[in-house]
Structure formats: C-alpha cells, structure tokens
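Reopening: FAD-binding domain-containing protein still failing for me.
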Amino acid sequence: MTQPLSIAIIGAGLSGLCLALALHQEQIPCVIYETRAEPLDIGGAIMLSPNALRILERLGAYERLQPLGYDFDQLYFRTEDDQLLDTFEFGGKDKFGYRGMRVYRFELIKVLLAMLSEVDITPQYGKKFSHVVSEDEGSVTWAFDDGSSSSASLLVGADGIHSRVRSCMHPDASPIFTKMVGVTASIPTSQLGVDADYTLPVTIMNRKHGAFIAAPQRKDGSEMFIGKQCPFAEDLDRPGWDRVLNDRQWCIDFLRKGQEDYPPLVGRAVSKLDMDKINLWPFYLIPKLTSWLSDKGRVVILGDAAHAIPPTAGQGVNQAFEDVYTFSRVMAGLQRSPDAVASLVLRRWQDKRQLRVDGVLELNASINKRRLPSALGGPMAAEGFDLRWLYDIDYEKFVEEIMGSA
Ligand SMILES: Cc1cc2nc3c(=O)[nH]c(=O)nc-3n(C[C@H](O)[C@H](O)[C@H](O)COP(=O)(O)OP(=O)(O)OC[C@H]3O[C@@H](n4cnc5c(N)ncnc54)[C@H](O)[C@@H]3O)c2cc1C
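Support: Ran it again with your exact input. Result attached.
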C-alpha cells in the first residue's frame, strides 16, 4: 500500500482514545479531533468483558484500571418475586483469563488520556468535523465547522452513534430509536439492604414495569448503580432528551413507578435518590451498513459510528475496542506489505468484524427470547450460553486471516 503517513481520528470518546493508543503502539502517527471543549463526564460505569480487557492489557491500560474497577464473573437475573431465573457469564479468570469489570467511564477515559499524554498525544478539543471535501488515492481532506480544513492519509470516524463521518458515506443511515429508555442513578450500596451473599449484579425482571438493574461500582462495591428500562414511545432530538433528563422529578417517578411489584430491595433502592446522580439513556441502533469504508477507501468508521449495539449482552464498548485493536494491527500489517491493496484488506477487516457484531446481535436476540414474559417465572434455564467465541478471541489469528493473502 501507499505508506499511510498520518491517521486523523474524529472523536475523543472511548473508541477514538483507544485507537490513538493502539496506533501509537504500532508506531503509526495520529491526531485526534473532538467537538467538545473538554473531556465530558457523562457519569456512570461500563462493563468490560475479557475480549476487551485482553486488548486493554496489551495496550498497557489494564493494570491502571485494576485498582479502579469492580470485578465480577456473572450477571444474575431474578424473577419479580426474587427467585433466581438465569445467569449470564461476563468473565472468569480460569475460563477466559479475566474477570468482568465495572469501571467508571470517566475513569477509563482519564486513564487513556493520561497514557496518551505520556506519549505526547493530546486531542484537539473544540474541533467539530463537518464534511469530507475531497478524497483521492493517497489522501483525504475534510472541513471543520469553524471553517478550517485538514488532510491526512486516512480519516477515521470514531464519532459515536450520531456520526457525521458516517452520514458523509451513508446519508440515509440514521440511528433508529428502539422505543426503549433507561433511567439510571447511583446510591450507597448499604441503601439496598441486602445480605453480602445476595447475587449481584442483578437484573430483576418484571412483566409490567420492565427490568430493574442493580450493579456494584467502585473497587470495593461501596456504590450501587441502579436503573430501569421501559418503553418510551416518542423519539426526541438532543435538546428534547436533555429536557427529559432535566425533569428530575419525571426521572425519579420513572424509577419509583411500580416499586411495590418488585422485591422490597427495589423500594429501598429508590427511596432516597440524589438528583445529581440521575442519568437518561435512550436506546438507538444503527441499521446494518453495507460498508464501513468510503468508496475510495480513505475514510473509515468504527465503534458506535459503525454498529451501535443494544445493551443486552453489554458489548457496545467491548466491540468498539475490538474494532480499534484489530484495525490498528491491520494498519501495521499494511505498512509491512507495500504491495497490498489497502482498501481490499480493510474490506476484509470490515467483513470479519461485522461477523462478530452479527454474532453479538444474535446473542442479544437469544438472551431477549430467553427472558420473554412467557419464560419468566418458569424454572431456571438449564443451559447457559457458550461464550468462548466472544470472550476468548485469538486476535493474532483474526488479523492473520485478514492479512493472509495480502
Ligand atoms: C449510559 C450508557 C451505559 C453504557 N454501558 C455500557 C456497558 O456497560 N458496556 C458496553 O460495552 N457499552 C456500554 N455502553 C455503550 C458504550 O458507551 C458505547 O458503545 C461507546 O461509548 C462507544 O464509544 P465511541 O467512542 O464509539 O462513541 P462515543 O462514546 O459516543 O464517542 C464519540 C465521540 O465523538 C465526538 N464527536 C461526535 N461528533 C463529532 C464531530 N462531528 N466532530 C468531532 N467529534 C465528534 C463526541 O463528542 C464523543 O466524544 C453504554 C452507553 C451508555 C449511553
């Protein structure tokens, strides 16, 4: 391939920051542009599974996260009368090499930013990507909203679910609102009033009011994330969602509604809520895209921009990290193979990544089916999911298969 001299990344979210670190490890220069004025703390923790933790370890971030995250192996699902219904493996040291981890999103962002700063990479804040100006065999030029423009060998859109970079390639592929929202909050774990041996993190299923989730956060589990998912008919724009979120009483009522139909721990959990710790999460997904690459192959999208995934199996950011890591390895492989046609290799990368994303979407569907109202209250499902394909991925083999015939 023509030597990629520089990669420009749009978006300093989890995908963009992790990508910069992965590219740096492969000695590929990059620059990051972020629309916000500074890193944003939207609150809340995310769950990292072994497939992503393996990547973070290779990038040197895992040992920095370890003192910050809450480790666990299983997610527990209980009926509305608090009987164990189902479990879902999220990690396991012996089986997958890593326990699952819940870590504050902002802590993870801070770790990635600190590591980037140590190698002199600082995102350029206040730079909003506008549109691609031109693209040829060797470079791409794009414009920012402030009227400035820039060029690079490759432009990577890591700009999230409402990606503008994606809309340059797929103007009709708008995010689809799933008509579900989650309202979340955090409380002291003691407020839950459960014994130390109560199964956590837990999702309490309820036919009438939706699922209620309680998941420990911080290393010592001293804080509890709580949340409820429910149907919400109307799709809103950003200011509309902000108005819903700012109507804290609506959010509190949402969390408290129907509490008498759940086990008593739910009533205790929602009895005292700190207004500042409430968050709203409308669930969107992206229709399956025909391509994550522009026609000339100089613009690529990844992470939520390419495939926002509903939260069922907790794989959104975990799949984004898979994109990022395999992309950086493929780019390094391309630098070593001057005769390879970059766009063909990147299309193979996309195909193989899409297969994994499809696998997660199928897994989501199986999990949802298993927890349909007709299944609730029945005996606990005897067979678990075999998740080795998901958590135990061999990244070397994955990249070799892409580069093999390059
Ligand atoms: C409440 C909540 C909880 C979640 N929990 C989990 C979980 O437990 N496990 C999990 O795997 N996933 C979880 N997810 C999903 C996960 O957060 C996403 O998959 C992940 O954040 C995707 O990262 P990203 O970097 O691709 O996109 P984003 O995090 O959306 O980052 C995109 C970045 O691009 C910037 N940007 C956007 N437009 C432009 C532009 N035009 N120019 C420049 N910059 C731009 C944005 O400001 C942002 O910084 C959760 C999501 C939410 C909302």
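Residues 98 and 288 are 30 Å apart (CA to CA). If you still see a failure, please send the error message rather than a screenshot.
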